[in-house]
Specification:
Distance between the termini: 98 Å
Structural class: alpha/beta
GO molecular function: RNA binding
Number of helices: 18
Radius of gyration: 35 Å
CATH superfamily of the largest domain: P-loop containing nucleotide triphosphate hydrolases
Keywords: RNA-binding
Number of domains: 5
Helix content: 25-40%
Pfam family, one: PIN
Family: In the N-terminal section; belongs to the PINc/VapC protein family.
Protein name: Flp pilus assembly complex ATPase component TadA
Length: about 625
């Protein structure tokens, strides 16, 4: 009798099974090299099926040595293209061809392979694929869970641990005195994967070489294996509480807010704070009030009712899931969790399409959740994307923020021409603004609004001090210190030699800085600074960096602009505007446009001045270049 087993039969151990019960005694088993190649590939990827198949080949070799059967490896290894097309049937076709060539029975646990073989006239022995491992009688590691256990942590060579307690008061405890062996860990890991495959209540959420994530009933289990991890590790998590919106503070206000219209909500908090538990309560509340609710999760572990459909990343991409949901048109979608830039972009796209969104994100402060949107979503669109932030701490609603936008002068500034769009973050409980987010001198700043008596240097003050230092350092060669006197006044201390440079002709240079910042600045020498004054130290510009801010005074410290100097042709790269000055390495020079002062810089060791694009200096220089003004450089 001649037999050609395919990969499925070898993995399931069907050949040795038939040799042991006598059915294949004296048979010749032709093992296709295509099967060996496939098993090697699976084993290299860390898949158990590959290792099980190799173990079956080793048993077959032992039978051959004993003379029970004859074993021969035949055929050729599949090409890379054929292996990539294994799902299309390329490898199966090679195996069927060998069965024809050796006039052998094809042994398979693959139903499609069996049907195809019979259709082509082969003698086929089909055996049901066996589910290796436990049946659906639960996970072996479930015994570690008690009523107050949120997670179990197992790793080769360590004692098992669990996180137990109530939300906000969890603690790690040892749950066994014995160190776990590698063999035991492998058994538990195999049990997790086999049970998930066998049970209608389980599924494999993620399967990558070295990492498998399983959802089984209300357990989420992550199994890590070498070489991805240094040892086999199992982390099993389940929710320890299921709540309703009535269990939280501000329940009536939040209900009214959710029902008023579709909103953009971020639920924020530290890991383990109870964010997902609150999100589940919100989802159930919305569902009970006749809203169509869906979820976007990876992995899907929110414990919600059957009426709420849970979606994962379609084709590995949440953007595709979002596109599908926009066709389904839910009233609200729960997005668990919003973490990477791509997630925030998907969240914003769905929100701007009119879908109510409730996102779950990690943050240690309520304001941090909003700040994670900065740079990922256009600043002016943030209130349209997120109008409510709910911060969860120790399982309770700690803070709720209302997010709106208004064109106004930011708090702490007074000049009317400084009015701009300002995002106001208002404490939902008190109705008092807690933060403002806006663009200040081309930077996005988040400014806390506190009691000035409790906090003399406000967020605005800190930003103002930094900007004043930057501007003054652009024209001063020596040490710079800034001392704030109220929200709209400051004293700047510089070296005596720098006074004329900082003030400029007729006070023009310092007036420009004052107008840009909306702050009155008094320039003094360091000798005039009181000994106990608490100014902030400045620093000199690095060698080769432009020391100019956008100090747009009309001339040099000496007075009238001078057109003379070395004419240069700046080069604009993707990141810098570069002025080549090979013969002036280490010298301090002034860069001018049609004789008008732009900035002061020190020529770097490489013989050039580099100005970072996007800075105020670079914008003025690029504008001068675009207007075809003559750019000159003169010694400072």
């Amino acid at each position: 009798m001649n037999v050609v087993p395919d990969t499925s039969a070898v993995v399931d151990g069907r050949v040795s099974e038939r040799v042991e019960d006598g059915r294949y005694e004296g048979a010749t088993v032709f093992v296709p090299e295509a099967v060996v190649a496939e098993l090697e590939r699976q084993a290299n990827e860390g898949l158990d099926t590959g290792w099980d198949g190799i173990a079956e080949l080793q048993r077959l070799a032992e039978f051959a040595k004993e003379g029970t059967v004859e074993a021969e490896f035949v055929g050729r290894r599949p090409s890379a293209a054929e292996q990539e097309g294994a799902g299309e049937g390329d490898v199966d076709a090679l195996i069927r061809a060998l069965a024809v060539e050796h006039d052998a029975t094809l042994l398979t646990s693959d139903y499609v392979q069996a049907e195809t073989g019979e259709a082509t006239g082969l003698d086929v022995e089909y055996v049901e694929a066996e589910v290796r491992g436990r049946k659906d009688d639960g996970l072996a590691i479930e015994s570690f869970f008690t009523e107050d256990t949120m997670s179990v942590h197992l790793k080769t060579g360590t004692r098992p641990k669990a996180k137990r307690g109530t939300i906000g008061e969890m603690r790690y405890v040892f749950i066994d005195d014995e160190v776990v062996s590698e063999e035991q860990m492998a058994d538990w890991a195999n049990d997790v994967e086999a049970t998930a495959r066998a049970s209608p209540q389980g599924f494999i959420e993620l399967s990558e070489p070295g990492m498998t994530i399983v959802q089984y009933r209300n357990y989420r289990v992550a199994v890590a294996r070498p070489p991805f991890s240094d040892a086999i590790e199992i982390t099993a998590v389940r929710p320890v509480a299921k709540t309703t919106l009535d269990d939280y503070e501000f329940a009536d206000e939040l209900r009214e807010r959710f029902l008023e219209r579709q909103r953009g909500v971020l639920i924020a908090g530290a890991p383990g704070a109870g964010k997902s538990t609150f999100a589940q309560a919100v989802a159930e509340f919305l569902n009970e009030n006749d809203y169509a609710v869906k979820t976007m999760e990876k992995p899907r572990d929110l414990q919600v009712s059957e009426e709420i459909t849970q979606y994962t990343a379609l084709g590995g991409d949440m953007a595709k899931t979002a596109d599908s949901l926009l066709l389904v048109r839910p009233d609200y979608t729960i997005y668990d969790e919003v973490r990477k830039t791509h997630d925030f972009e998907v969240f914003a796209d769905m929100r701007l399409a009119g879908v109510g969104l409730v996102g779950v994100t990690h943050a240690t402060r309520a304001i941090d959740a909003l700040q994670r949107l900065v740079g990922r979503v256009e600043l002016g669109m943030i209130p349209q994307v997120v109008d409510t932030v709910v911060f969860i701490e120790a399982g309770e609603v700690d803070t709720v923020y209302d997010v709106t936008t208004e064109v106004k002068v930011p708090s702490g500034l007074t000049a009317e021409d400084l009015a701009r769009p300002v995002i106001q973050v208002v404490d939902f409980e008190t109705g008092v603004p807690a933060f403002e987010i806006y663009t200040f001198n081309r930077q996005v700043v988040t400014v806390p609004l506190g009691d000035e008596e409790d906090e003399p240097e406000t967020g605005v003050g800190r930003i103002a001090k930094q900007e004043i230092e930057r501007e003054i350092r652009s024209v001063a060669r020596g040490h710079v210190e800034v001392e704030l006197r109220g929200q709209n006044e400051a004293i700047v201390y510089v070296d005596e030699d720098d006074i004329s440079y900082v003030i400029g002709k007729g006070g023009g240079r310092i007036s420009d800085i004052e107008n840009r910042l909306g702050i009155d600045i008094d320039v003094r020498t360091h000798s005039e600074r009181p000994a106990d004054s608490g100014g902030a130290s400045g620093f000199d510009a690095a060698d080769g960096g432009a020391r100019g801010g956008d100090a747009g005074g009309a001339g040099t410290a000496g007075g009238t602009p001078k057109p003379q100097g070395q004419v240069v042709q700046p080069e604009i790269t993707s990141r810098h505007v570069v002025v080549r000055m090979d013969e002036h390495v280490g010298e301090t020079v002034e860069v001018r446009a049609d004789g008008e002062y732009l900035f002061t810089a020190t020529v770097g060791r490489g013989g050039d001045i580099q100005v970072s694009r996007g800075s105020a200096i670079a914008e003025e220089l690029e504008d001068a270049i675009d207007r075809k003004r003559t750019i000159t450089v003169v010694p400072a």
